[in-house]
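#onboarding

Welcome to the new folks! Below is a worked example of what a typical request in this channel looks like: someone posts a single protein sequence, and someone else replies with the predicted structure as tokens. Don't worry about understanding the tokens yet, we'll cover that in week two.

Example request:
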Amino acid sequence: MTLTRRVLLGTTLATLWTRLTGVQAATASQLPEAPPRRLVAQKAALRLLPSAETAILGFDGTAPGALLRCKLGQNLAIRLVNQTDQPLTLANWGLRLPNALDGVAPLTQKPVPPGQSFDYRLTPPDAGLFGYRSFVAPDAGNQLRRGLYGAIIIDEAAPPAADNDILAVLADWQLDPKTQILDTPRPGESLATINSKPLALEETHNPGSRIRLRLLNAAAARLFFVAFDGMTPHVLAIDGQPCSVFSPVGNLLPVGPGGRFDVMFDLPVTGGPARLVLRETGRTDQPLIIFNTSGNKWPDMPPIAALPQNPLLPAAIRLQDAKNVQVTVAGGGAAPFNLNGVPGTAFGNAPLFSVKRGASATLALVNKSTAATQMRVHGHALRILHDLDDGWDPFWRDSVIVPPGRTKHAAFVADNPGDWAIEVLPLDVPAGDMVTWFAVG
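Example response:
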């Protein structure tokens, strides 16, 4: 999905509207409330392999579903229409919304039954790249594996200049010999796609073009290692939140399920094509996107600069006053995975912990399992704490990945009241995600 940006920056859209209609653009408060945008979950088919079509469930009949996009400060009204044969919701990756709009069933809402609809009226507080999915425990992973996901972009008030804005949604499909999705995931080969297309996509741009690439991992349990070959990536934001601009070590990004990276780079002026590559240990690199260049060189642009930091996030977290909570995952191999000694397939009646609104909390994910494990916290932005001191990484996350036998700590300010899900997901193994919850009041 590519959107040309050079002529769509600043106030150009508003100016164009005025020229075409003769009407001055109204502010959001002056406009009448628009009807919700219908998002229809339904059975569909994708040609993931040349041999046959694969039956999926998709929003608006495809995967990823339609891109949902608005500017920061605008409302996003969505009517989820459920035309499938199973209960659904509209949950998200990373949006810090009021609790009733988080879309996690049965924790924050009842699921939407087949044949019915439900309205979500959102005013996202943060700009950035986010995602949407259905989340009905204990079947949330299977709904994701069958294609019920899409991307959300909340544009900054003044987006940085770029020649092209590209959305790349990575996914992972486990198919049987007839190219149909396996009912039960199992170890072994799986099919990686980008925007549900076989690898690799090819794009042609002018030499020296500045590309803004938005990466979203929509896989249910696969960790993607994405490398940049022939260009130098500059990370602008992680999990939807701006960070100090940096180039990752080895030009390699680990993107966990639901993870998002906002990256900017300039295409080469001379030499061979640049590539976005899927890199896996013991396997040949698989190109995800091949960037060819043709035509005249674009004029040089200013150095890539950081996005404005999010003023709504706390400048510091008082770790000395934080509530400390441990989450332990164990199992793997012949033993089933468990969360704090129980299967974790459903939300319990009591929260894992409760914390007052505005207080700090620290979560320790102790990974005693055989698989790398990801912990995701809903409704809040996290700081990943350093292992050897009391500092934290200089960026925000909504999830943390922990290797087997290790422990990682994440801290946050509990500034969003309600009952919030914590997902714990063993990666790259046939195991369902486990859930628990905490209360902020």
